[in-house]
Write a structure and sequence with these properties.
heterodimer; A: 304 residues; mainly alpha; MetI-like fold; 12 helices; 75% helix; B: alpha/beta; 4-stranded antiparallel beta sheet; globular; binds adenosine-5'-triphosphate; binds iron/sulfur cluster; binds magnesium ion
């Protein structure tokens, strides 16, 4: 066979390592400065949540009797007292409480996003792939669920079953998958018309395998991007509920609950009680948004 | 011996819903394939030719239940494929494989070559061990001219020609009896086209494959076909053994298509009689009465609007009320 220019190109390509679509995306992601900054912020916040407790001088439940009653004068941030972030209104160490609040908020965000990813992806992919009547029924159901004011339902659940973190997780998970299902369904509709799906169908590959092998892997970009945007949404939802005083229960706390407390006492001049939780809240959201944005650019280079 | 595939009166209709249609709106149909019939012997090739949108892909997809079709598709003279449930159809899907028009789009971008090629085997022969499967994939890759070290690569790293070789390897790994090639070379450079057609011919000869080879012009199928079928608006216009169709075309449409085929000899090319083709492609939503080709036919007469010509004749079938060799008046 004569060596055409095409073959020459391929021979050259073969000399390099195989480039999976993922490796390409990774390269693009790491070239994106904003995304890297977001990632660094996230690493810092996660590190703070995981290891912050080993730096704390106080536990999150201990009351510091020295500052009690004189929070405004003595409860401010100080290395001498060991309260790096100051204390809250009751004299508890705000550093330890912020660590814990960050843990809970991240957990709520991750669990909510995870449920959304698994349930939403499967639901949306099944509806989109089968299409027709199945699709119609499944998506109308989502429409109906979405029409329900979920915040109201969630609050009702929390009031009825008591304020437990399980209910909170379950409730947030239950509402978060629907938007994901819609997005995934839309993407599935375009992917199922591509020739490689037709090729699999023509070969006799069964529907569940087509969905898992051919459709979902080609959706992972969209899913990853949307998930990183969902995490902050979940955190915001939880914060809002905590702000209403219905979120996690003491002594557990979340960033939303801390912000709510801090906002309540700001009038007395204890700005740190609002400032530190708010700082971590904002860092988390910024980090996630930048990473999400970077992921979208990295995974869908055509989209820009 | 009965033919490998005999198709009778194949019809594919798509129901067209437009935005704004109410549930009680009378459904409109697009008749994409209309009364197609042919027989295909084992090891032979049927070329299918027609302009874009004339229903070639839909014909191919109708044969293997990728779109709802009516009529009869008899496999080895015994099983009507159109009557099978999806479950009972499955074993036949390894016997009939397809090669697609867009080489890159027909490969899953998230799968490596090895997994792509192995998929039909993994689907139909789960009893084959992973190592044996790998061995067969490697063998097939070599067969179609792919280097073994490509096995862990992803489709986007290859050119169109290589991707089509991957598609061919995938189609052949499960040892089918019939290969349906839907414009397998249309998307490729001219220089690569010939290589891929040669490869298909070689594989067909070695493996005793029957083939349905779809193309939108007559030059591509000339090399590879035993018989050629010309479609227009979902109907057979002319069908004949290759030599007869190219040397003695009877249908004005075939003659027009042939006149569009460039002749390598420049003198002959200039002296060529060009058949004028006037008029646009009629809409498949409301085809003209009588002969569907009459809007563009230089030979159309009054009866062509009344009577639907049927593809008649024995081996050389022509669906025309006024068939015959190219006439003087039609020459530009
Ligand atoms: N799923 C579908 N729903 C509705 N109409 C369809 C569908 N698939 C094809 N058609 C219509 O059927 C007709 C035949 O299409 P088909 O794809 O078979 O043409 P083709 O000959 O393969 O063309 P090309 O050379 O462009 O591939 C066209 O008018 C097309 O618009
Ligand atoms: S039937 Fe009439 S219109 Fe149709 S191809 Fe023949 S001559 Fe032309
Ligand atoms: Mg086509």
């Amino acid at each position: 066979m004569v060596m055409t220019s095409e073959q020459a190109v391929e021979a050259a390509a073969l000399a390099s390592k195989p480039r999976s679509p993922w490796a390409d995306a990774r390269r693009r992601f790491f070239r994106n400065k904003a995304a890297l900054a977001g990632l660094a912020i996230l690493v810092f916040v996660v590190g703070f949540a995981l290891f912050g407790n080993s730096l704390a001088q106080w536990s999150n439940e201990e009351l510091d009797y020295n500052v009690m009653g004189q929070i405004v004068e003595l409860g401010g941030p100080s290395f001498a007292s060991g309260h790096y972030f100051g204390t809250d209104d009751l004299g508890r160490d705000l550093f330890a409480r912020t660590v814990q609040g960050t843990q809970i908020s991240l957990a709520v965000g991750l669990v909510g996003a995870l449920i959304a990813c698994v349930v939403g992806t499967l639901y949306g992919a099944v509806a989109g792939y089968f299409g027709g009547r199945t699709d119609n029924i499944m998506m109308r159901l989502v429409d109906i669920f979405m029409a329900v004011p979920y915040m109201f339902v969630l609050i009702l659940l929390l009031v009825m079953y008591g304020r437990s973190i399980t209910i909170l997780f379950a409730g947030i998970g239950l509402i978060s998958w629907m938007e994901m299902a819609r997005i995934v369904r839309g993407q599935t509709l375009t992917i199922k018309g591509r020739e490689f799906v037709e090729a699999a169908r023509a070969t006799g590959v069964s529907a569940p395998i087509i969905i898992l092998r051919h459709i979902v892997p080609n959706l992972l970009g969209v899913i990853a991007v949307y998930a990183t945007l969902l995490v902050p949404l979940m955190i915001l939802t939880e914060s809002f509920i905590s702000f209403l005083g219905l979120g996690v229960q003491e002594p557990l706390t979340s960033l939303g609950a801390l912000i709510s407390e801090g906002a309540g006492t700001i009038a007395y001049g204890t700005t740190w009680q609002l400032g530190f939780p708010l700082l971590f809240f904002c860092l988390t959201l910024f980090g996630l948004f930048f990473v999400g944005d970077g992921l979208r650019d990295a995974l869908d280079p055509k989209d820009r | 011996m009965s033919p490998l595939l005999s198709v009778r009166d194949l019809d594919v209709k798509f129901q067209i819903t437009r935005p704004g249609d109410m549930p009680w709106t009378r459904p409109r149909y697009l008749h994409a394939v209309n009364g197609v019939d042919f027989d295909l012997e084992p090891g032979k090739t049927l070329g299918v030719v027609g302009e874009s949108g004339c229903g070639k892909s839909t014909l191919a997809r109708g044969l293997i239940q990728m779109v709802p079709a009516t009529g009869q598709v008899l496999w080895r003279g015994e099983t009507d494929l159109l009557s099978l449930s999806p479950r009972r159809m499955k074993p036949f899907r390894s016997e009939i494989q397809m090669v697609f028009q867009d080489p890159l789009a027909s490969l899953n971008p998230r799968m490596t070559l090895g997994r792509i090629i192995a998929e039909p085997l993994a689907t139909h022969r789960p009893d084959i061990s992973a190592s044996e499967r790998r061995r067969r994939v490697a063998g097939m890759m070599e067969r179609v001219g792919l280097l073994p070290q490509m096995i862990n690569r992803y489709p986007h790293e290859f050119s169109g020609g290589q991707c089509q070789r991957i598609g061919i390897a995938r189609a052949l790994i499960a040892e089918p009896k019939l290969l349906i090639c839907d414009e397998p070379v249309s998307a490729l450079d001219v220089s690569i086209q010939a290589q891929v057609v040669e490869l298909l011919k070689e594989l067909q000869r070695d493996l005793g494959l029957a083939m349905i080879f779809i193309a939108h012009d007559l030059s591509v199928v000339k090399n590879i076909s035993d018989e050629v079928m010309v479609l227009f608006l979902g109907r057979i216009m002319e069908k004949a053994p290759k030599a007869q169709l190219y040397d003695n075309p009877q249908h004005p449409y075939t003659q027009a298509l042939l006149s569009a085929v460039p002749i390598p000899d420049p003198v002959a090319e200039r002296a060529k009689r060009i058949v004028p083709m006037t008029g646009d492609m009629p809409s498949p939503m409301n085809p003209p009465s009588g002969c569907v080709f009459r809007g563009r036919c230089p030979r159309a007469q009054e009866d062509c609007a009344r009577i639907v010509p049927q593809p008649e004749g024995g081996v050389h079938r022509v669906a025309c009320l006024h068939p015959g060799p190219l006439q003087a008046g039609e020459v530009a």
